[in-house]
């Protein structure tokens, strides 16, 4: 199995298992849906997609020394845009996907179980992505890692994501 395939399988499993297991447990325990969570889940999903899109755009625009025709791994370290406030914005935002899905589905058990999905996402960042980026970009990345956190919940990151999507952020 190539790297892309197992990463894709990991994230899809992480996204779907907590909410689906939560729905099953809700029905088993006869717990009703919490409709109040739905709008919050939709807002969270929008923020997740916003940050993830901004990270992808920044990598596409700033992460290549020459123009690439298709999706390719970056050959330059990106430290601007949303990457100026955290090192792994895409994976960090995607870590919250099980919570957003569980909230949209209104599943109380899914919301509780989504903590495990978030924890798996954070472990993925720290044990898989960090290693890959170190191999590709150190010593430059090692200096960057001293200055910028791996993940951040700072509102500044949302602002940077919006600026990136609007084209206001430069490489």
Automatic annotation (TrEMBL):
<feature type="transmembrane region" description="Helical">
    <location>
        <begin position="6"/>
        <end position="24"/>
    </location>
</feature>
<feature type="transmembrane region" description="Helical">
    <location>
        <begin position="99"/>
        <end position="127"/>
    </location>
</feature>
<dbReference type="GO" id="GO:0012505">
    <property type="term" value="C:endomembrane system"/>
</dbReference>
<protein>
    <submittedName>
        <fullName>Uncharacterized protein</fullName>
    </submittedName>
</protein>
<dbReference type="InterPro" id="IPR007318">
    <property type="entry name" value="Phopholipid_MeTrfase"/>
</dbReference>
<keyword id="KW-0472">Membrane</keyword>
<feature type="transmembrane region" description="Helical">
    <location>
        <begin position="36"/>
        <end position="55"/>
    </location>
</feature>
<dbReference type="Pfam" id="PF04191">
    <property type="entry name" value="PEMT"/>
</dbReference>
<keyword id="KW-1133">Transmembrane helix</keyword>
<keyword id="KW-0812">Transmembrane</keyword>
């Amino acid at each position: 199995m190539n790297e892309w395939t197992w990463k894709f399988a990991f994230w899809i499993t992480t996204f779907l298992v907590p909410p689906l297991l939560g729905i099953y447990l809700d029905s088993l325990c006869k717990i009703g849906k919490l409709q109040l969570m739905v709008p919050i889940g939709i807002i969270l999903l929008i923020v997740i997609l916003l940050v993830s899109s901004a990270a992808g755009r920044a990598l596409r625009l700033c992460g290549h020394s020459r123009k690439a025709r298709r999706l390719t791994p970056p050959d330059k370290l990106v430290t601007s845009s949303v990457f100026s406030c955290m090192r792994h914005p895409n994976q960090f935002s995607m870590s919250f996907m099980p919570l957003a899905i569980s909230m949209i589905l209104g599943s109380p058990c899914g919301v509780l179980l989504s903590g495990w999905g978030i924890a798996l996402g954070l472990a993925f960042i720290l044990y898989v992505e960090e290693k890959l980026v170190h191999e590709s970009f150190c010593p430059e990345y090692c200096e960057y890692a001293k200055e910028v956190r791996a993940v951040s919940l700072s509102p500044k990151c949302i602002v940077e994501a919006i600026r990136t999507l609007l084209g206001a952020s430069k490489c």
